[in-house]
Amino acid sequence: MTSLQTATPPQPSPPTPAASARGLLRTYGQGDTLVTALRGVDLDLPSGRFTAIMGPSGSGKSTLMHCLAGLDQPTEGSISVAGQSLEGMSDDALTRFRRDHVGFVFQAFNLLPMLTAEQNIWLPTELAGRPRPALQDRFDHVVETLGLTGRLTHRPSELSGGQQQRVAIARALLTGPAIVFADEPTGNLDSTSSAEVLSLLRGSVRELGQTVVMVTHELDAAAYADDVVVLADGLVTHHLAAPSRDALVAALAERAA
């Protein structure tokens, strides 16, 4: 009798990370003034999740974000974002790459005071020459999701800090970038506005399928994230999924070996 063997079905390939780094080294200065900000970081940031990067002052968290976002170039190592390697890209190519694939939310909002909220949201796409009709549905959805429908004609001076940061988030989300980097996005906000902004960032992941990477030193802010990456002395010491507050406190208390 011939035995029948059941073929093992092929396993699906793991999803491509939104961003990844291998052997990332970043130094500044030389000789006696040499500072090593990153010491061979290996990291994968998953797509469709909200990741917080934490660490004490001088741990390298801002440097890591700047390298991953193409705002700074590592001394050694490789970086890929949205499946594309950033290695060897010229300044002009990096500028185009950031424009097309990366969104930014900054602590200081970076809104132009003479423009309305709507004009600030549309500004980067207009500077890039992208036609507005192609993005109108996305604009309407993002504005509604962020609760900005009644604020579009207001200038920044007529908005609260939380509302200004909502405008900045809408600007970052408008083109559906592969990844959004948020650098201390609640640093200039009170606790109520901070909670609103963090809920909106988390909502952009849940409702819009966005990938968000946030640098923060605040435990309360990191609690909104799906994953938390902890840095110390330029090294990733922990990559935690949905950590409890106690686990995160313990991880932050440790130093790199």
Any chance you could write out the topology, listing elements then pairs?
Blueprint: E1 19-28, E2 35-45, E3 50-54, H1 61-68, E4 76-81, E5 84-85, H2 91-101, E6 102-106, H3 117-127, H4 136-145, H5 161-173, E7 179-183, H6 191-208, E8 212-215, H7 219-222, E9 227-232, E10 235-241, H8 245-253
Parallel strand pairs: 3-8, 3-9, 6-7, 7-8
Antiparallel strand pairs: 1-2, 1-4, 4-5, 9-10
Helix pairs in contact: 3-5, 5-6
- What is the CATH architecture descriptor? 3-Layer(aba) Sandwich
Low-confidence stretches: none
CATH topology: Rossmann fold
Order of helices and strands: EEEHEEHEHHHEHEHEEH
- How many discrete domains? 1
Largest sheet: 6 strands, mixed
Helix content: 25-40%
Residue fraction in strands = 15-25%
Please, could you describe this protein's structure?
- Helix content is 33%, strand content 24%.
- With 257 residues, the protein is of the alpha/beta class.
- The strands form 2 sheets. The chain has a 6-stranded mixed beta sheet with strand order 6-7-8-3-9-10, sandwiched between helices. The chain has a 4-stranded antiparallel beta sheet with strand order 2-1-4-5, with helices on one face.
- A hairpin with a 2-residue loop joins strand 4 (76-81) and strand 5 (84-85).
- Helix 5 packs parallel to helix 6 (191-208).
- 36% of the residues are buried.
